[in-house]
Amino acid sequence: MSKQGREQTRTERAAAIRAEQQRKENTKKLAIVAAIVVVLGAIIAAGVWYGSGSSDDKTVDSSKLSARVGDHSLVIGSADAPTKVVVYEDFQCPFCREFEMSSRDFLHEYAAKGRVQVEYRPFNLLSTLPYSSRALDAFIAVLEKGTPQQALELHDTLFDNQPYEQSSGSVSEDDIRGWVEDTGAGDDVLSAIDEDHQDWYDAAMKAVQEAGVQGTPTVFVNGKKLEGASVGDMATRLEQLIAQAK
Amino acid sequence: MPRRIGPWLGLCARLVLGGVWIFAGALKVGDPNASITAVRAYQLLPMGAAEVVGRVLPMLELVLGVCLVLGLLTRVSGLLSALLQVAFIIGIASVWARGISINCGCFGDGGVDPDAISKYPWEIARDVGLLALSLVLVRWPRTALAVDSLLFPQAPADAGDVDSREEEDVEARS
């Protein structure tokens, strides 16, 4: 082997050793980065889990709540409860959805304990968006021909599945019919969905105007309008008011 | 970028970006339902995805902000920061194009807001600025006063690079 050849092999060997070192260094670096990413991911997951907290473990079986049909409304909880809440809402209104998501669990819980009575008064505010009236028609049918428990179940389902305003028509009448069937309502209820509910709409709207409701969601607590900087703020205050009332 | 001042400019970028992320995350992290409403208001993502993003985004923003302030995984953090800014720019541009008037929900709030459309250009400009800062950190991740400098000491790697380049030169000459 020539001198030049030997030198070349030596250089190659040295380069191979350095490459090996570099490779080990990179593997170590990658391991550190991976470990940190895993820890950070765990912190984020823990925070998200803590934030969504009790929403998964429902403490109240809503099908066992006492419920009755009110005046163009659904009423849950005892009439003897110290706090009486009235909620004016529209099934297509995004902030109503948020209020529902932020308040449902504690309202059901306090209603089961006899601490609050809640009257849900949905009406057709967003009349240009199909979901508002399609949902309301089904809700009216269950109120009039089904049981109050079925109406409560449908009420919650309608908010859980609220579409975006721009695709309000994407939830078909048949979709909603399916949800009504899921509550266990019979054929008389299903056929009542297609009946004309104009009188109900007008009466509900008249009550809205008499109450001085300007938008949705509007909430009254013992006759006094619930104020709040945000929907979350409203829900927090409502929970405090119910908890404090004796 | 000059050797001396570069790392300090990088530190400034980290602190500005990190501060904005921490502020944005902290305002939203306490009210996941409001955050979901804000994401849903864009009417862009499938329902389930909007809910997940609404729940995860505030915590992600907080942790990302802390990483940037500390200088932890600066290049990865800068990249994630850049990707999020691109997503926000697309989001705002999309509601603007569709004529949907919403509060961007960038720092809490969110949802329908009838006077919001006039703010969109400024919001996009702000996000483009933050995107630029993020990209600076992706390009030059070595910054002053960073935890990264302790975790991944720079000297040996650099020396190695220089050596191998000299080696190539030697080989070329012989």
Keyword list:
heterodimer; A: 246 residues; alpha+beta; 8 helices; 6 strands; 11% strand; B: 174 residues; mainly alpha; two-stranded antiparallel sheet; 7 helices; 72% helix; disordered C terminus
Could you characterize the architecture of this molecule?
- The complex is a heterodimer of chains A (246) and B (174).
- Chain A is an alpha+beta fold.
- Chain A has helices at residues 3-52, 94-112, 130-145, 148-160, 173-182, 187-193, 198-210, 231-244, and strands at 67-69, 74-76, 83-89, 116-122, 218-221, 224-225.
- A six-stranded mixed beta sheet of chain A has the order 1-2-4-3-5-6.
- In chain A, a hairpin with a 2-residue loop joins strand 5 and strand 6.
- The longest helix of chain A is centred in the N-terminal third of the chain and has 50 residues, at 3-52.
- Chain A starts with a helix and ends with a helix.
- In chain A, 36% of the residues are buried.
- With 174 residues, chain B is mainly alpha-helical.
- Chain B has helices spanning 6-29, 32-40, 47-70, 74-98, 120-139, 147-151, 155-173, and strands at 102-103, 111-112.
- A two-stranded antiparallel ribbon of chain B has the order 1-2.
- In chain B, a hairpin with a 7-residue loop joins strand 1 and strand 2 (111-112).
- In chain B, helix 1 packs across helix 3, helix 1 (6-29) crosses helix 5 (120-139) and helix 4 packs antiparallel against helix 5 (120-139).
- The longest helix of chain B is centred in the middle third of the chain and has 25 residues, at 74-98.
- Chains A and B meet through helix 1, helix 2 and helix 8 of A and helix 2, helix 3, strand 2 and helix 7 of B.
